[in-house]
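Today's session is about reading a structure prediction critically. Students often jump straight to the picture, but the first step is always the sequence itself: look for stretches that repeat, for charged clusters, for runs of hydrophobic residues. Only then move on to the predicted structure, which in these notes is written as discrete structure tokens rather than atom positions. Here is the chain we will use throughout the hour.
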Amino acid sequence: MKRIKDTDYLAISARIRAMENTLLTRERMERILEARTEEEAVKILEECGYSGLEDATPEGIDASLLAARQEMLRDLGDSLPDQGFLDIFRLKYDYHNVKTLLKARLAGVKAEHILMNLGRISPQELTAALESGDLDALPGLLGPAAAEAKEILDTTRDGQLSDIALDRWYYREMEAIAKASGSGFLEGFVRLQIDAANLRALVRTIRMGKNADFLKLVLLEGGHIAAEELLSVSAGKGSGLAELYAPTVFRAAAESGAAALGGGPLTEFEKRCDDAVSTYLSDARFVPFGEQAVLAYLAARETEYTNLHILLLGRSMGLDPEVIRSRLRESCV
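Below is the predicted structure for this chain, in token form.
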């Protein structure tokens, strides 16, 4: 990645500011929630540039949102001075596909139907590389990541250990892309992603009754909270969790996580982890042009796809609007 100059983003920033007008605002989400018919809900979505969402089945919703993601990445990919900002969002699909293919190979089953064609490499090319063992051609750090995960599976047959290794490589590659960009804003975004992952790991391991040794295995380096502090909370069965995160943007998430340790659902906790990252990105609204606008828009679209999935699937299942509303994420723009 070349070093960033904010003036490189003059044109794309202006275009993104215009595109933000079609984002799914809270007011539009409320209108979808209150729509009396599916036709009325689809009409509101068409105002935001969506089509093909008439099929309200889970499969139809997933297919339509996948197509929207692909179009958004293709469209911005043609305009961005630096592809690294797209790669930050593409990485997770590459690593998801590696996890899926390796475990499918171990189980002797097919996995094509659950692969996602949103990464830097197509599922077909990735499948061929894993089958041939020619991993050097994979983009970024995906080659050594896949090699280590495959070796773990071959020697231990433990899918969880393989996934943990791939998660470490995933966040390591995110950090590498951010540092190479020269963007402090992007580096801050990645550090918060690591913080969110570590907070989730902390709460989940305590809920599952796992000890601090297991947590140490899954914690990631590079966040704002030191591993020793997280391990101390783990050893105390969650004592001090809310206090540890009180000075951070994860304050509300930690409070919700502490409440969930009593055995309640994790839905609110997961939502507040996502909202904390959105709070950081919301500062991009005050930057007239630069990579901040690009990053915030990409993140806003990802949040939008999540919210659309929650909205449409919830409606199709007949969930109470208040239940759906409680699960919606906050957008950063």
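Discussion point for the tutorial: The chain has a mean pLDDT of 90.
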